[in-house]
Every structure is written in structure tokens, then in C-alpha cells.
From TrEMBL:
Keywords: NAD, Oxidoreductase. Belongs to the aldehyde dehydrogenase family. The keyword Amino-acid biosynthesis does not apply. GO terms for cellular component: mitochondrion. GO terms for molecular function: aldehyde dehydrogenase (NAD+) activity. Residues 72-534 form the Aldehyde dehydrogenase domain. This is Aldehyde dehydrogenase domain-containing protein. The active site is at E311. Gene3D superfamilies: Aldehyde Dehydrogenase, Chain A, domain 1, Aldehyde Dehydrogenase, Chain A, domain 2. It comes from Ceratopteris richardii (Triangle waterfern).
Amino acid sequence: MAMLRAATRLSRAFRTNSIFESHASPLSLSSVTVKRLDLRCLLSTAAEAVAEPIKPDISISLTKLLIDGKFVDAASVGKTFPTIDPRTEEIIAHVAEGDVEDVNRAVKAARRAFDKGPWPKMTPYERSKILLRFADLIDKHSDELATLESLDSGKTYQQSRYAEIPTMARLFRYYAGWADKIHGLTVPADGPHSVQILHEPIGVAGQIIPWNFPLLMFSWKVGPALACGNTIVLKTAEQTPLSALLAGKLLYEAGLPEGVLNIISGYGHTAGAAISSHMDIDKLAFTGSTEVGKIVSQAAAASNLKPVTLELGGKSPFIIAEDANIDHAVEVAHFALFFNQGQCCCAGSRTFVHESIYDEFLEKAKARALKRVVGDPFQNGVEQGPQVSDEQFDKVLGYIKIGQEEGARLLTGGDRFGQKGYYIKPTIFADVQDGMRISREEIFGPVQAITKYKTLSEVIQRANDTTYGLAAGVFSKNIDTVNTLSRALRVGTVWVNCYDVFDAAIPFGGYKMSGHGREKGIYSLNNYLQVKAVVTSIKDPAWL
Ligand code: NAI
Ligand code: MG
């Protein structure tokens, strides 16, 4: 019976809250997919922390660096680092550790593939077909990709397999569609001149990605860069190096010419720093902490002034007006914060509830958190796995302690879950004050902070009183409230009566210290294109 309830909850969460793709999309979590999810849940038994961890059916074969189309050892031969299973705190595999010399080799390969190689010279249609073949291979290998993704990061297998991997394939199909539709302009100018505005690929892109959505971050960066005809040196996060290596292998299987995509596993202060300061990299894209976003921007400026796009942290407000459907708002606010173990840049981490519904909301939010199924992410029906690493586990528990010391009211949770693995109980603080650190700093874990408000102008001022500006949620049936809030909030995305809708076509990015530039959609193409004006003098023009 408990499992039946868990299954219903999960399918309802996927159906009603959104998830990555809009429901109009042919690849969205359609009712067919949801039925499969339900079935998988129903077959399972109750979830528990990892006493006897489930052994996923996979052998780890790709652990080397991917340079110039080949899997190779690190330049300092034998140099590796361990990647950890967050369920057990045990080593999954030792992975080749890339450093400065490996980045140099990768840049050389990417440079050659751009300057002399076939990629930018290929017709856009040919590039498009390779991206489409890759999307088909993602579908074909989705079990394997999802297993690696969950093993390395701790996210649930169901989320990887049924939400993230299909979204990845969808995104590559979206950018495959753009590849042969990128074109410049001809513009009129004063005088006898023909003016062409060319949109050229920018060159070698350096891309540094985090661990919370390893394959989706891979896709957001690699998809548009390849569609525009660029070559790439990508560094994965040291916590989650495995899945991108398989994705890279599949891209070459799809027909990518040698050297077009190079993948370096390794640490930030070594391999990451080498990328951001490299003189032969033409563009840098980074997703991660605001702190490191500033460091890589400085390195980019101090080296060759390469342009930088940044997708950084957030402290996103989730505002629930007095007229909102409370049950729906409770469910979506829960999803907005706890999804992916709370490890989302856009997590709805400041829940503002109108005072007239505050007490009822607290009671229901607590009941929902208590029902959240925490356990082995490979167990069907589990909603929440472990945090990604010991560092994140300690950081989140540290913030829970800070919240208690600051005087916020702990409604539920507040502790680790089980004895082994980086599991944390779903935690809620009520009566959170704006000045508290748990209201100002990114916790990046399963900790919901709820506060009450009285008026619309008050909540606008408080919601915007942050250094971040990534996203916001608005829950209301009143069109005036919705319109006022969605224009007043200084954030890159406003989700109204939904949350975390991540369609390939919708741009994503932040205001203020949440970064600059936009990923996904048509906007991401601009990050990977140069604009060149070619002005030709015309003799005897028939018209101007
Ligand atoms: P981080 O910003 O250190 O790591 C993100 C990426 O940057 C990784 O690939 C890392 O190796 C690389 N990196 C680190 N230092 C670098 C350097 N000096 N030069 C170049 N690259 C470097 O994030 P971390 O330490 O994993 O997490 C810390 C906090 O950052 C989290 O608790 C969370 O608050 C936030 N974060 C935000 C993310 C987002 O989606 N915006 C993703 C991951 C973390
Ligand atoms: Mg760091």
C-alpha cells in the first residue's frame, strides 16, 4: 500500500509539476512513459537507506581521457583520481586525471579540428545528421547512460532514465534542427556598398560543467557549440566523470570527426584553470558556483579576453499567493526544492507563503516531506538519493545547524538518513527571517526554508533582495498577481503554477550574480557564433 502511494505520488509529480520538457513535446514524459514508471514502482518493495546496496548491471570500461577521438591515459601516466559511489562512500573506479599538459593536448586537437579539420567545413546538413544519429544512440544506450549517471551522482535511476536521458536526446535533436538554419543577414547601408553580416563559428570552446546534472550540462554546452560548427574541450566535474565519457564515445560513433570533442576528467584548480586561462581557447562556458564563476572570468580576462558565459548559483523565491490551490502549491513547492536532492541551481529555496494560508501550508508541507521516500536511488519508488559527495553532505548538514542556531523553527528532518552514504532527511525550516544565512546563501540540499508575507509589494521587495537572480516560482490564479510578479521579479525564468520546466527551446540563465548569457533555445547559438560584417564597394548599383 505504501508503494502504491509512492508510485502515485511520483507519477503525479512527473505529470503535474512539469519536469524537463513541456508536455506538448513529442518526447515529453507522456502518459505512456508515466505508465511504465508506475509499473516499475509497483513492482518494488519499500525503500530503505543502503544497507545492502543494489548492484547496477554495468561494468565501468571508460575511464581514460578522450583526446583527438581516442581514449588515452593522462600525460603523467598512471595519474588517476577515484570517483565515489555516494550510496556507499566506496570507490566506483579510478579515472585518468587530466592536468595542464592534457588540456594542452586537447586544445591542440580541437584547434586542428577547427582550423584544418572537416567540422566547420562540413555542410550544416551533414553536421545536423551526425547530431541526429547521436540522439538515436542516446535512446539506444539510455539504460547504460542512466545507470552511470545515477551511480556517479546519486540521483534516482528513474529520474535519469525517464526524464534526463530523454531530455538529452531531445536537446540534441533540437540543435540538430538549428544546424542548417543558422544564417546571417544582408543589411542596407548608406553609400554604394553591399553589406553581408556573416555568422561564423567562434572556434575552440572551453566548457566546464558541474556534477548536479552531468549529462544535461554536457548537452546544454555541447549541443549548440557543435550545431554552430565549433570544436570543444570539455571538463567534467571531478565528482561525476563517468557518463560524459560514454556520451563522447557515442558521438564519435555517430560520425564526429577526430578532435572535435575532447573530454578531460580532472579537478578545477588544475585542468579547469588550464582551460579558463588558455590562450588558444576562443570562448569559455561555465556552470557551477558563483565563487568559481568569478575566478574563471578573471582567468579568461587575464589570458586572451575570451568571452565567457556563466550559469551560477541561485536563491530562487517561490511565492504562493492567498488564492493559490494550497494542495497543488504544496506539492510543486516541495518538488521545486527537493528535486535532485535539492541540488539544483534554480531550486525554489525561499518559499514565501501568504499569511492567510501560512499555517495550513506548513502543516501540509511537513506532511509531504515526511512522506518523501529516501533510499537507494536504484530502488524503484525512491524519490531522494544521497547527496553527491562528502563535501556537499557536510555543507548541507552545516547549514541545517546554522539554521537552528539562527533561530529558524525546524519542522521536520534536520539530520542524516541512515548510517552509510550521504543521505539527508528531507528538512523544513519555518519562520525563516530574511537576514538568516539559510535565507541568503545557497544550501544546495534538501532543506526547504519557509517564510510568511502580507502584501504583494512587500514580497516583491523581499524576493528581489538577494545577490542572485536565476529563477522564481509564482503560484496564483489571479492574473493581475501573476502579471505583477512575473514582471517585477529580477530573474531569468519565472515559472507560473509550475516549476522546473526545461524545454530545449526555452532559454535559461540568470540576472545579477546568477551569471550572464543564456543557454538553450535560440539564445545559446549566439554564445558560439562570431559576427562578421563584410562590406563590399559596388560599382554602378542598380539599386541601393
Ligand atoms: P564548483 O564551482 O567548484 O565546480 C563546478 C566546476 O568548476 C567543476 O567542474 C570544477 O572542477 C570546476 N572548477 C572548480 N574550481 C575551478 C577553477 N579554479 N578553475 C576552473 N574550474 C574550476 O562547485 P562545487 O565546489 O562542486 O560546489 C560548490 C557549490 O557550488 C555547491 O554547493 C553549490 O552551491 C554550487 N554549485 C552550483 C551549481 C549550479 O548548477 N549552478 C552546480 C554545482 C555547484
Ligand atoms: Mg569547488
